[in-house]
Amino acid sequence: MRDLARDIVLGKTRAIARGISLAENDSLGREELIDLLHPHTGKARILGITGPPGAGKSTLADLLIAGERRKGHKVAVVAVDPSSPFTGGALLGDRLRMQSHAEDEHVFIRSMASRGHLGGVSRATVDAIKVLDAAGFDTVIVETIGVGQTEVDIIELTDLVLLVLVPGMGDEIQAMKAGVMEIGDIFVINKSDKEGADKLRTEVEYVLGFKYAHEMEKMNPVCMVSAKMKQGLEALEEEAEEWFQHLSLSGLLEQKRKERIQKELKRIFSAKIHELLDKKMDFYNNVEEWAEMIYQKKVQPYRFINESLHDFLKKESE
Amino acid sequence: MRDLARDIVLGKTRAIARGISLAENDSLGREELIDLLHPHTGKARILGITGPPGAGKSTLADLLIAGERRKGHKVAVVAVDPSSPFTGGALLGDRLRMQSHAEDEHVFIRSMASRGHLGGVSRATVDAIKVLDAAGFDTVIVETIGVGQTEVDIIELTDLVLLVLVPGMGDEIQAMKAGVMEIGDIFVINKSDKEGADKLRTEVEYVLGFKYAHEMEKMNPVCMVSAKMKQGLEALEEEAEEWFQHLSLSGLLEQKRKERIQKELKRIFSAKIHELLDKKMDFYNNVEEWAEMIYQKKVQPYRFINESLHDFLKKESE
C-alpha cells in the first residue's frame, strides 16, 4: 500500500486508476491508502459542475479542460452517475464527448458508476477526489447528472460549483432548479444563443437578489455561454478564477473545506457503526425476523428497538 | 398518551392532527404513541402519487378522493414537500386545489413540510401514515413533489405507487423520469388530450417491456387520463383496484410491507445510535475540533476515526 501511495503521489496514471478502483470497490486497504495520501492533499481546486440533464455539462467540462490545459494545469474529471440503471446507456454516451482529451497524459477522466447503495457513490467520490488531489492534479472537475439529493450531497464535496442551466425547460423544471439554486457559486446559462436565455438570466438574477436581500455579501456571478459556439468561456474562466480568489482570501474556502471534513466524519462514523451493528448484532440477518414480529404485532416497534439497542451496546462492551 | 391514542383510534379529527404534529416535531411521547397505535394499523391502503412537478398530481389526488368518497371510503392525504424553501410558496398553492373536500369530515388532508433535515420528513411521514391508518382511514394517499432520492424514499413507504407523467416535457425530463420508472406500479399519463401523449405511452411501454423482458410477471398498467377533463379516471380506479388485489393475493403486498418495516428498523437504529454518539461522545460538539485536526494534517483521518469509535464503545459500556 505504501508503494501504491508513493506511485500515486508521483502522478503515475496506473497507480491513480488503481487507487480510485480501491476506493470505488471499498476494498481492503482503502482506509490505509487514504490515510497515507492525506498529507499530500489540499492543493487541488475542486470544481463541481451540476445542472439538469441536457444542460450541456459534459460539453462545458470538455471546454474547461481545454482552458486549464492552455494554462499548463493538470486536470482530472470525475463524472458521477448515481442514477438508475435505465439511464446508464444514454448518459455514458454523453461522457464520450470528453474523450477528445484521451491522448493527453495530463488529463485524467473517470466515470463513477453507482455500485450498490447511493451513499457508496458519495464515499467513493470523496476518496477519488483525494487520490487525484494527492496525485498532483491542479484542478479536479466533478460532474454530476441530475439534480436529486445525492447529486447535492456530491456537489457539496467541491470547492466551487458551476450550476449549468439552459433556457426553454419550462416551468416544471424551474421548480426543480430552485431546489439546487442554493448550491451554485457561479450560474452558467448555457446555449445562450437560444431563445429565452435572457429571460432565464433575469429569473436567476431575481432569485439571487432574493438570496442576498439581507446580506452585503459578494453576489454570485451569472455567466452566459454557448458551449457549442465556444462563446463566453473566457469570461466564465475569469469569473471562476475571481470567485476562487474571493473564496480563498475571505477564508470561505478554508471554512468550506473544514465543514466538508465534518460531514465526512459524521458519515464515516455512521457507516462504521452500521458495520458494527451488522457484525455484533447480526443486524442484517436478524432484521427480517424482527420485521416479521412487528408485522405480526407480536411486539411494539419502538419498545423492541430500544431494548435491542440496549442489548447491542451491552454486548459491544463485553 | 393513552387518551390521545384512544381518540385517534376513535377517529377524532383533532386527536389525529395532534398525533401527526407530535410525529412531525419529534416530540416526547412520539414513540409511545406509535407503539400504542401499532396494533390498530395495517388496515389502510397506502397509495403513493409521484411524478415531476407540473404533472398534475394534486388535481389527480383530488379526483381520486372524490372516487373513494363515492365508494363510501374515508380518505386521508399526506402531501409531502421536502424541497427547497425557494419552492415552498408555489407548491403550497397547488395543494389548495384539494381544498374542495375541506368540508367533508371523512377526508383529512395534511401537508408535511420539511423541518430540519430531509431524513426527518421520511420519518414524520411514516408516523403520519401510521396515525391515519390507526384512525380508520380506508385509503391514505401520499403525494410527493419532485423526483429526487428523498421522494423515492418516501414513496417506498406506500403499498401502490401511481407514477404521473405528462407529454411534452422534452428529452431532458425523460432522463430524469427514467430514474423513477422502477418505483411505479401504475403509470398514469396525465393530460392525455395533449399532443405527444400517445408517443409518451409508447415510450413508457417500451421501457416497461425492457423491465419485463426476462420475467413472466404481470405487466404494470399504463393509464391515459385527463384530470382536467375528468377522462379515464374510472379506468384508472379499476386498474388500481385490480393491481391492489394482485398485490394482495400474490403475497407481494405482505412482502412489501415487511420490507418496509425492515427499512424502518434500519433507519431507526441508525438515528438512535447517532443520538447516542451525540450524548456520550459529545459528537456534534467535538466534530468541529476533529475536523480542524484533520484539516491541519495533525492526524490521519481513518486512524483517528477508528480510535475514537473504539473509545466511544468503551465508554458506552461503562
How many H/I helical runs of chain A?
13
Tell me the overall shape of chain A: globular
For the record, the CATH class of the largest domain in chain A is: Alpha Beta
Query: Can you give the helix content of chain A as a percent range?
Result: 55-70%
Q: Count all strands of chain A and give the number.
A: 7
CATH architect. name of the largest domain in chain A: 3-Layer(aba) Sandwich
According to CATH, the fold-level topology of the largest domain in chain A is Rossmann fold
Strand order of the largest sheet of chain A: 3-2-4-1-5-6-7
| Rg on CA atoms of chain A, Å | 22 Å
The low-confidence parts of chain A are 84-94
Q: Biggest interface and which pair forms it?
A: A-B, 78 and 78 residues
Q: What's the pLDDT, averaged over the residues of chain A? A: 81
Distance between the termini of chain A: 33 Å
The secondary-structure element order of chain A is HHHEHEHEHEHEHEHEHHHH
Oligomer: homodimer
Secondary-structure-based class of chain A equals alpha/beta
Count structural domains of chain A: 2
Largest sheet of chain A: 7 strands, parallel
CATH homology-level superfamily of the largest domain in chain A: P-loop containing nucleotide triphosphate hydrolases
Strand composition percent of chain A: 5-15%
Provide a concise account of the structure shown.
The first copy, chain A, has about 325 residues and is α/β, with parallel strands linked by helices. Chain A has helices at about 1-10, 15-25, 30-35, 55-70, 90-95, 120-135, 150-155, 170-180, 195-210, 235-250, 250-280, 285-295, 300-315, and strands at about 45-50, 75-80, 105-115, 140-145, 160-165, 185-190, 220-225.
